[in-house]
Amino acid sequence: MSFSFAVGRLMTFPEKQHLRQLIRDLPPKNLDRVVQIFCRGKQVERHSCSEVYVDLENEDKATLWRLYFYTETVENAKRLREV
Fold this sequence. Notes:
This protein is mostly helical. It has helices at 3-6, 13-24, 31-39, 61-82. The protein has a domain at 1-8 and 52-83. It is 57% helix and 0% strand.
């Protein structure tokens, strides 16, 4: 699925569940990029904390798809390294 095609539609509930799992399974070094994607184009207060809560139900579709493709790319790279 291409990025331009995906951002044109809403993410389904099963896709959001899969995205949640992909985010949970990310290596810690990749979580900073997830936060950058969430904060893109938003006014966000900077806090020093170890946890970030994001409600995927309230995120715009472009952000969700950016996250989805980023997390899928990281997951695929992990699988390739294991081979």
